[in-house]
Amino acid sequence: MNALHLAGPAAGRAREGLTAVFFGGVVPASAHEEALAEEIGRSLARAGYQLLHGGYNGLMEAAARGAGGQGATVTAVTLTGKHDEWGAFNPHTTMSVHVPDPGARLNHYLENADLIVAMGGGVGTLHELTAALYYATTIRPVPVCLAGAAALRLLAFLREERWLYETPTRPLGFLATAESAAAFRAHLATLDTAPIGGA
User: Fold this and answer.
1) Mean pLDDT of successive 10-residue stretches along the chain, which has 199 residues
2) Closest of 107, 112, 177, 183 to residue 142, by C-alpha
């Protein structure tokens, strides 16, 4: 079996435009966070981003609903051997990528990201977020935005306990926060919108 399997009507197209990766849990912390995720998806689509996400429900589905409602391509990234167990993708997914293991899944997210947005979630979301923070400090300074109260509480803890800190060789200029949809839209407006590999 191929290491990477693409499915869906957009599978034959080369990567086009900007890609935002969304990390968020299947159990939203609150109705407010779910509404924020949907507005983030909507804002990303309006700014010209396609959405890459886990493909399932909760905050992922809310972000996909927002992006898909604006006509953006919404791609689910899942594990080849787990898709049947985890269930169907949310109805806003237009394309899927099936990879063999969690490492390949993370690599696919990070290597294709022009922007990473993370909200609250479970241990899987935490794993994705910490991988993104490490990637952005050591491999490529892809912008990472933590949004919503749950993610901001986590960030405060990471800073307070010095799990996350800035050094001259590992600056944190890639990292931003957004408590609201308006703050997220303002952050989007500040980003360099050249896709990976140039304009």
Assistant:
1) 40 62 92 96 97 94 97 95 83 94 95 97 94 94 96 96 91 94 95 61
2) 112
